[in-house]
Amino acid sequence: MLGLSSMNKTADYVNRLVDNNALNAKLTEKQKTVKKVEAALSDGIFDKYPSCSFVFSLVDKRKITIREVCEIAELNGIPSGVIKMRRRDLNKFNKGQ
Q1: Exposed/middle/buried for 72, CB within 10 Å: 0-12, 13-18, 19+?
Q2: Which residue has the higher pLDDT, 33 or 97?
Q3: Listed residue (37, 45, 46) closest to 74, CA to CA
Q4: Which of 19, 29, 39, 75 is most buried by its number of CB atoms within 10 A?
């Protein structure tokens, strides 16, 4: 799998960042998921493919929709077309494994 170690590091960091923040204690699970996606897609903190793998794992778990991810990406300056392209690329890569 593409950068599983990197994706795990991204996931661990983002989960700790959101879940361990006292300001997020009263947020719903959906709101926490949105914050995790925002953190993962924010300006160049993480490598693009581990970040997208983490975000798409949340989509696969039905915690957030791809449409919501695209909206968050657009707010972070990432065109929704790029998100859809990365989703296709990662799906193709994972099928080949």
Answers
A1: buried
A2: 33
A3: 37
A4: 39
Q: What is the pLDDT of residue 93?
A: 83
What pLDDT shows up at residue 1?
43
- Higher-pLDDT residue of 55, 12: 55
Give the whole-angstrom CA distance, residue 20 versus residue 92. Answer: 34
| pTM attached to this predicted model | 0.81
Range 20-29 contact pairs with CB under 8 angstroms and sequence separation of 24 or more: 29/63
Which range marks the domain in which residue 78 is found? Answer: 4-95
The answer to whether the Cα torsion of 47, 48, 53, 59 is positive or negative is: positive
Give the total number of structural domains in the chain.
1
Tell me which DSSP letter residue 62 carries: T
3-state DSSP of 14-52: HHHHHHCCHHHCCCCHHHHHHHHHHHHHCCCCCCHHHHH
